[in-house]
Amino acid sequence: MRPEQQLADVFVALAGSTEETPDVQGTLSVLAHHSPRVLGVRTAAVVFVPGGREPTHVVCADPEVHRLERAAVEWREGPAHDSPNHERRPSTVTLDDAATVRRWPHYAPRAVTIGYTRAAALPLRGHSGTTGALVLLSSEAEGAFAPGVLELGRSMAEFTAVTLERAREAERSRTLAGQLERALTSRVIIEQAKGVLANRRGLSMDDAFAVLRGYARSRRRQLNEVAREVVEGRADPELTGSPEG
């Protein structure tokens, strides 16, 4: 398969990973597992830190690197942790360099131990900010990452971030629409129940609502549930004023 087709397939897979609902893990897996082949690097990991109460996601095909990046979240070290503070143009970090070891005293030696001496972090930067990074790792024999590789990886990382943002925005819109629809339906049922009570008990609409609400509160029930029973003719005769039996 030609490189252009491989790249196109990745972007299609990323875009399609959130068609129905936001699939964070699935989207990150697409990025992590396709990046080494498309970018020509040894391995890649994705660290997604959405903030708030949501958990941090770490995805990588290499179990050792997965454990390393998971530990780095706790250490608050490594290229993924520092990537939000870097300049927009990514660069390669030499992990066995003395300055890097001082900067990341836990991460750098551990990475070198498992065979990685070069790293680059490409921020997952969306419209609302940075939520993690795509981390590329290689050995000294493989050399530094070419500028074109880093730029392409940056585009893939940013596309992923924007894709997740849009999927979440769409999910929030669907949730809000559902809430509004339920609220409207509930309001309609309550208005219908008020009309039934007003007609049967000779009350004004305001008094009918007061009776309906008072009944629901005294029995610790949802107002819309009681209203639906009134409309459907299943309500307590004490409420509707209907003769029993």
Tell me the span between the first and last alpha carbons: 78 Å
Total E-strand runs = 5
The SS-based structural class is alpha+beta
CATH topology assignment of the largest domain:
Beta-Lactamase
Tell me, briefly, the overall form: rod-shaped
Spell the H/E element sequence: HHEEHHEHHEEHHHH
Tally of discrete structural domains: 2
Total number of helices: 10
Mean pLDDT: 84
Strand content: 5-15%
Largest sheet at a glance? Answer: 5 strands, antiparallel
Are there runs of 5+ residues with pLDDT below 50, and where? none
Task: Give your account of this protein's structure.
By secondary structure, the protein is an alpha+beta fold. The protein has two domains: 3-172, GAF domain (Beta-Lactamase), CATH 3.30.450; 175-240, Arc Repressor Mutant, subunit A. It has helices at residues 3-16, 24-39, 63-75, 79-82, 98-103, 107-113, 147-201, 205-218, 223-231, 237-240, and strands at 43-48, 57-60, 93-94, 118-126, 129-138. The protein has a five-stranded antiparallel sheet with strand order 2-1-5-4-3, sandwiched between helices. A hairpin with a 2-residue loop joins β4 and β5. α1 (3-16) packs antiparallel against α2 (24-39), α2 runs antiparallel to α7 (147-201) and α7 packs across α8. It starts with a helix and ends in a 5-residue tail after the last helix. The mean pLDDT is 84.
